[in-house]
Design a protein that fits this description.
globular, Rossmann fold, four-stranded antiparallel beta sheet, 27% strand, alpha/beta, binds adenosine-5'-diphosphate, binds magnesium ion, five-stranded parallel beta sheet
Length: 236
C-alpha cells in the first residue's frame, strides 16, 4: 500500500505569553505513517496533543521541528516548509478537514456551504448540487433546511452539514477531529459508512473519536500519543 502521510520527529511546545511565558511541551519527536485506504485513530487522554497533531497535519499549527511529508498529486511536499500557496493548493485538492464545529457563514444556505469545496475545483454546479443533496440525505438533514443558513440549526444538524461539506470532495487524505461528537447512534452510523466508503476508494484517514464503538468500526490502527518527558510536571 502506498504511503500518503509521513510525519517525522515532530515537536511542538506552546509558549503561554500571558502566563510568564510558561513552556508547554505537547509533541516530542512524534512520528506517524499513514497508507492509502487506512484509518489511523489518535488515542490518548484529554490534553495529550491529539488535536495539536491533527491541526499540524492541516498546517494550522507550525511545529518547532520535524517534517510532515504529504503526498500531493505525484510529489511529496513537507508542510512544515511549504509556501502558503502550496498549502492552499493542498487544502483545496488533497486534504479534507472535518472539525467538531461548523463555521456558519451568515445568510449562506446549508446546501451552498456543502457544495462550495467541489465548486472551487471547477466541477459543474448541477453535479455539485446532486452530490450535496445525496450527502445531506444520507446524513438525515431534513430537505426543508437545505435552503436555510445553518446559524439557527441545532448542534447535531450543524455538525452533519459540516460532515457533508468535508466529504463532498474525494480528498486523498481526510482529517477528522471528533466528527461524531454530538451525533446520535443512527447518525454516527451514517458517518461510519462515509468513512468506510472513503477508505474503500483509497483515502488515507487520520481521526480522533471519543466514541469507542465508532473507533472500533473505523480504526485500522491506533496511534497512542506519547507524553513529552516531564510534561505532566510542567505546571508546577
Ligand atoms: N493554541 C494553543 N495555545 C496554547 N496551548 C495550547 C494550544 N492548543 C492546545 N494547547 C495545549 O496543548 C495541550 C494539548 O492540547 P490538544 O492537542 O487539544 O489535546 P487533545 O486534543 O489530546 O485533548 C493542552 O494542554 C492544551 O491546553
Ligand atoms: Mg482535541
Amino acid at each position: 500500500m502506498r504511503i500518503c502521510i509521513q510525519v517525522e520527529n515532530l515537536s511542538k511546545t506552546f509558549v503561554l505569553h500571558h502566563q510568564n511565558s510558561m513552556h508547554l511541551p505537547v509533541l516530542d519527536n512524534a512520528s506517524l505513517r499513514v497508507h492509502r485506504g487506512e484509518c489511523v485513530v489518535l488515542h490518548g487522554h484529554s490534553g495529550s496533543g491529539k488535536s495539536t497533531l491533527l491541526r499540524s497535519l492541516y498546517a494550522n499549527y507550525l511545529p518547532d521541528s520535524g517534517h510532515i511529508h504529504i503526498r500531493h498529486h505525484d510529489q511529496w511536499i513537507d508542510l512544515v516548509a511549504a509556501a502558503p500557496r502550496q498549502i492552499i493548493d493542498i487544502r483545496r485538492q488533497t486534504i479534507g478537514w472535518v472539525s467538531q464545529f461548523l463555521r456558519a457563514i451568515p445568510r449562506v444556505p446549508a446546501i451552498e456551504l456543502v457544495m462550495q469545496p467541489l465548486l472551487d475545483l471547477g466541477v459543474p454546479r448541477p453535479e455539485c448540487a446532486d452530490r450535496a443533496a445525496a450527502l445531506l440525505t444520507h446524513l438525515n438533514v431534513p430537505r426543508s433546511l437545505w435552503k436555510l443558513a445553518p446559524a439557527t440549526f441545532s448542534g447535531g444538524e450543524q455538525q452533519r452539514v459540516n460532515i457533508a461539506r468535508g466529504f463532498i470532495v474525494d480528498y486523498p487524505i481526510l482529517l477528522l477531529d471528533e466528527p461524531t461528537a454530538s451525533l446520535d447512534a443512527a447518525n454516527s452510523a451514517a458517518v461510519v459508512e462515509l468513512i468506510t466508503a472513503a477508505k474503500a476508494r483509497g483515502a488515507g484517514i487520520v481521526g480522533i473519536f471519543h466514541d469507542a464503538a465508532v473507533r472500533e468500526q473505523v480504526a485500522d490502527r491506533i496511534h497512542t500519543m506519547s507524553p513529552p518527558p516531564g510534561a505532566a510536571h510542567d505546571n508546577h
